[in-house]
Specification:
heterodimer, A: Non-ribosomal Peptide Synthetase Peptidyl Carrier Protein, Chain A, 3 helices, B: mainly alpha, 18 helices
């Protein structure tokens, strides 16, 4: 998958998880979204892992700085056997 | 015991040599020299007093770091569960040295636990490095780079728990650190906070204000609570400012550890502003994986309770990380209570007020002001558990009239 495709799929997940609409861009970060707290973050990660069929390693999501890097991480995990 | 002027001279020499090595040194020579410089500084600044336990403790400390490095090189890059051996090695020794009495594993001449200054910070930094390597964020460092990182003098004693990813940027070809003038100013600001403001407020903390062999009115208890909180803030954040400033003078970036915590509007926000690097370590290593597991176990309909349980466990760990004793566990539980209360209150408000009402609530200045005051008072009160042993608590209550 390309980054744009991943972000488009992430948008559908964000629309389900968040009450306020969040428009995803590659440079958007958690700090830009007031509703993105610890509960939302975990709900989001569980939904993303299920939707993309991936499993994130400890600490790697938290080390991404924005949606673009998060999308690249998803692509990286998808390419792993 | 050497004089203050000699001590400042040593610090200045350390900073100058460090700066020269980082900015002008090259290749293997720089790595070895910088590693040895920090090892020597660690010995000189923390283990130079005339006490027969200091030298064996220093040597044991160096031995531990060598062991951590061996486990890192052997296991961090491997597949499957093997990296966890490298991850847990520093944490295992932290638990052994901090929480198991020496009499259990050695005789009375064994290096004394409290002399392992900064061990909690070292263990957390070095275990996090394993995760950074495993996740491909950094390559495994060479031995002398690892020694320099482990014993990096500005941050060795009280942190911040700055990740290796940030540390290694100081050694990159392009200079990325702050200008030296700004770092020097940061160091000076830290010195004023630590030495002056912290020292002044220290006079009004529990030990000096209440336990002075006199009776006190009950009003003196909240005075001591607020004073202790402010003393701790100026003392700890001041030291971190000095660490960040000193590291910046050498061109090595260090993570920020405080972000105006006195202005936090609730306990959840507080722990995103106070001892930030500890919070981030706990978030990445404990909160995220544990909450994901518990949400899966509790089920989506009870995700709120799964998060609450995770929060409670994380802050209990934070409490015991700070020290050995029931009072530290109680301090951790008090933090759990505060953050879990915010968690459920936020859920309640969102349901009760709806999206627009919740936004208006958060933007109301009066509510914000009251929330900041309440958070300030709550944390100041919980520090009573942190600052005093059980015996001291009884003594304090016995002198209040």
């Amino acid at each position: 998958m390309k980054q744009t495709e991943v972000i488009a799929k992430l948008q559908t997940i964000f629309d389900t998880v968040f009450l306020e609409p969040v428009v995803l861009t590659p440079v958007l970060s958690a700090k830009d979204v007031p509703e993105w707290d610890s509960l939302m973050h975990i709900s989001l990660m569980v939904a993303v892992e299920k939707a993309f069929g991936v499993r994130f390693r400890m600490g790697e999501v938290e080390s991404t700085n924005n949606v673009g890097e998060f999308a690249n991480l998803i692509i990286k995990r998808q390419l792993e056997p | 015991m050497h004089s203050q002027s000699a001590f400042f001279g040593e610090i200045l020499a350390y900073l100058l040599i460090g700066r020269l090595l980082v900015s002008h040194g090259r290749g293997g020579f720089r790595e070895v020299a910088f590693g040895l410089l920090n090892l020597a500084a660690f010995r000189l600044f923390f283990f130079a007093e005339e006490d027969s336990r200091y030298l064996p403790t220093f040597l044991a400390y160096v031995g531990l770091v060598v062991l951590f490095y061996i486990s890192l090189r052997l296991f961090a890059h491997r597949k499957g569960w093997l990296p966890w051996l490298a991850f847990f090695t520093p944490l295992f020794f932290l638990a052994l040295i901090r929480y198991v009495p020496p009499s259990v594993y050695g005789g009375p001449h064994y290096p004394y636990g409290p002399f392992f200054i900064g061990l909690s910070y070292l263990a957390f930094r070095n275990s996090y490095l394993v995760v950074e390597i495993r996740n491909g964020a950094v390559a495994a460092p060479g031995f002398w780079r690892y020694v320099g990182y482990s014993f990096f003098a500005p941050t060795v004693s009280v942190g911040p728990i700055s990740p290796y990813q940030q540390y290694q940027r100081g050694f990159a070809a392009e200079v990325t650190g702050p200008p030296p003038g700004r770092s020097a100013l940061r160091l000076l600001v830290g010195l004023v906070k630590y030495k002056f403001l912290g020292s002044v407020l220290f006079q009004l903390t529990y030990a000096n204000f209440l336990l002075d062999d006199h009776y006190h009115p009950w009003m003196d208890l909240p005075v001591a609570m607020v004073s202790y909180y402010l003393f701790l803030y100026f003392n700890f954040s001041g030291f971190c400012d000095m660490a960040i400033g000193a590291a910046g003078l050498m061109g090595i970036p260090v993570a920020e550890n405080f972000n105006n915590p006195l202005l936090a509007r609730n306990m959840r926000e507080f722990w995103n502003r106070w001892h930030i690097t500890l919070s981030q370590w706990m978030r990445d290593m404990v909160y995220a994986p544990l909450s994901k597991y518990l949400v899966g176990w509790f089920g989506p309909s009870r995700a709120n309770h799964a998060i609450a349980v995770t929060i409670a466990l994380v802050f209990l760990l934070i409490g015991v990380w700070h020290g050995v004793g029931w009072n530290y566990a109680a301090f951790g539980l008090a933090q759990s209570l505060g953050v879990v209360a915010v968690h459920y209150y936020t859920i309640f408000l969102k349901k009760r007020l709806g999206r627009d009402g919740f936004k208006a609530y958060n933007e109301n200045r009066w509510i914000h002001a009251v929330a900041v005051v309440m958070t300030f008072c709550y944390y100041a009160a919980t520090l009573f558990l942190f600052a005093n042993t059980g015996t001291e608590m009884k003594q304090i209550f016995s002198v209040l009239r």
